[in-house]
Amino acid sequence: MSTPTLLTSLFQYKAWANQELFAELQRLDPEIHRIELHAALRILNHIYVVDRIFVANLQGLQHGYSASNTAETPTLEGLYQAVQASDRWYLDYVQGLSAEQLSERIAFHFVDGDAGCMSREEMLAHIVSHGGYHRGAVGRIMAQLSIAPPRDIYSRFLHQAEPQRRQPR
Q: From 3.30.70.920, 3.40.50.150, 2.60.40.2340, 1.20.120.450, which CATH number describes the 3-24+33-162 domain?
C-alpha cells in the first residue's frame, strides 16, 4: 500500500470515527448530562481547532488561532457540521498529494509561539493520531456514564467498510 492510499484510508477512518462518536453523543440528555456533554464538546472542539490549525500549516497560511481551543463552546450540532466539513477537506487534500509533496517539510509556528517544522506526511499522521487520542478521552467520559462508547479502532473501520476482508482467502 502506498502512503497516499494509506493516508486516504486513515482519513476515511477519522471521518467514520467522528460520525460514530457524534451520533452517540446526540443520544445524551443535554440536561441530565450537561457537565459531561460540555466536557466532551471542549475536547472535540480542541480536536477541531488543531485540525484547522494544521489545514493552514499545510497550505502555508496563517491560521488566526491564539490557542488550541476556543473560548466559546460550540453546540453539538454546530461542531459536528464543522467537523464534517473539515474531514471532507482532509480527504480531498490527501487524495491529491504526490510523494514529493508528502515529503516536503514546512516551517510553521505553534499557538504558543514555538517554531515547528514537519513534513506534510508527518502533519497528516499527527492529525489522525491526535484525533484518536482525544476521541478516546470522550469515550472515557461516556463509559463513566455507563454508556458504551463507539469502538473507535481502525481494524473495525476497515472490516465494516470492506466486509469482504472477513472472507477466508
A: 1.20.120.450
